[in-house]
Specification:
Helix content is 57%, strand content 6%. It has 377 residues and is mainly alpha-helical. A four-stranded mixed beta sheet has the order 3-4-5-6, covered by helices on one side. The chain has a two-stranded parallel ribbon with strand order 1-2. It has helices at 10-21, 34-47, 65-78, 95-105, 124-132, 153-160, 166-175, 183-189, 195-207, 211-216, 222-226, 230-244, 248-252, 256-259, 262-272, 276-298, 301-306, 309-313, 317-327, 330-336, 338-351, 363-368, and strands at 2-3, 56-57, 84-88, 110-114, 136-140, 148-150. It contains 22 helices and six strands. Helix 5 links the parallel strand 4 (110-114) and strand 5.
Length: 377
């Protein structure tokens, strides 16, 4: 129910969002009284036997007394089961007084925190919880419907402290149906990696969402994530376009870096709408991926991912952990907290249900680090 008659375009925007989400929409372009719209909308939707009805009201500031009175009238008109206070993560600590004003007018029952995809960490959300004595139920990490996530306290605090959120990353992998026992990751654990494998791996990575958000979920990668944006996602798409312009023989050629000729590079560039420099960047990134995958295979990572505790028990841990650290870009390793930080992350990953293999047999970790995040020697 669109009861926001204050903001220009609110009706059209909510109607479009409802259509995208495939849910019933109620609003009026002729009625200017939000209380009347809310009352009539809830009444009509109840007649249609809808079990969940959301009334969207105008945003308001603590200094706008008239809007607060209006909010109280809407509450009295529809008698909701829950009143949700929606706050922006960018409001900071000033949100405490704002939330307290809301609570003084209406019985706020829960909180939604939006704009957590910005640089703000959402510390003000804790102030809103304290002021309203209400739990956070959802967090918004973007502008699309699938970027409204269930609030998980441990994960939220972990991200605020730069400790990552591996549990959400694992959930995203499950939702994206990325199978840790797929043929791709079995080959990567064996140290085998072709352009076709790279295409499948990058496709899987993009299913998880924007690269900067993925990096934020990995402990120690918060600073690296801050330097990423839409450009990283566009770069991945560009790589996929170029690989789509390759022949099946090129995609499956284990010696592609030796057999790739200038004429082939020019053809791939033309077919993908890129230039030869872009194709060369693709080949360089493939070389880095391949080097790491080969090192992972030499470390016997296949056995380690089948028994993650073996890596942590000390039987094979120190030597193989040192080899893995050596495969990572020094700056990335430093952001993880060095060798001890890397080992701590592995313990955390093992504790989340053993998603080591699901991340690509640690070759996947290289992919999540962004192309160029790994080095070859």
């Amino acid at each position: 129910v669109c009861a926001d008659t204050f903001r220009a375009g609110a009706y059209d925007q909510l109607k479009q969002n409802a259509a995208k989400a495939k849910v019933r929409f109620y609003g009026s372009v002729s009625e200017s009284d939000p209380v009347a719209i809310a009352r009539e909308g809830v009444r009509d939707l109840k007649k249609e036997k809808y079990e969940l009805i959301i009334v969207d009201t105008s945003g308001r500031h603590k200094q706008e007394a008239a809007l607060f009175d209006e909010m109280k009238q809407v509450q009295e008109a529809v008698q909701p089961n829950d009143i949700v206070y929606v706050m922006s993560a960018t409001d900071g600590q000033a949100v405490h007084e704002q939330a307290a004003q809301f609570k003084a007018k209406v019985p706020v029952g829960s909180v939604i925190v939006t704009k957590l995809d910005c640089h703000a960490k959402g510390g003000g959300a804790l102030s809103a919880v304290a002021a309203t004595n209400s739990p956070i139920i959802f967090i918004g990490t973007g502008e699309h419907m699938d970027e409204l996530e269930l609030f998980k306290p441990d994960a939220f605090v972990g991200k605020m402290m730069g400790m990552g959120d591996l549990s959400t990353l694992v959930d995203k992998m499950k939702d994206a149906k990325i199978e840790e026992n797929s043929e791709l990751y079995k080959r990567m654990q064996d140290g085998v990696f072709t352009m076709r494998d790279m295409h499948e791996h990058l496709t899987n990575t993009m299913k998880l969402g924007p690269m900067n958000k993925i990096m934020e979920m990995i402990p120690g990668m918060g600073q690296l994530a801050a330097g990423m944006g839409e450009n990283s996602q566009q770069a991945l798409k560009g790589f996929l376009y170029m690989m789509d312009s390759m022949t099946p023989a090129e995609l499956d050629d284990p010696k592609i870096k030796k057999t790739m000729t200038p004429s082939r590079m020019a053809r791939i560039a033309r077919g993908s709408g890129k230039n030869v420099v872009d194709v060369n960047n693709l080949l360089q990134s493939y070389n880095k991926f391949e080097e790491v995958v080969k090192k992972v295979g030499k470390m016997g990572m296949k056995n380690m991912t089948q028994d993650p505790t073996s890596m942590l028990s000390g039987r094979v841990g120190n030597q193989q952990m040192a080899q893995l650290a050596k495969a990572l870009n020094p700056n990335m390793l430093k952001q993880m907290g060095g060798l001890s930080g890397l080992q701590g992350m592995m313990k955390q990953m093992a504790g989340k249900g053993g998603p080591l293999a699901g991340l690509g047999g640690l070759g996947g970790l290289g992919g999540l680090g962004g192309l160029g995040g790994l080095r070859s020697e």
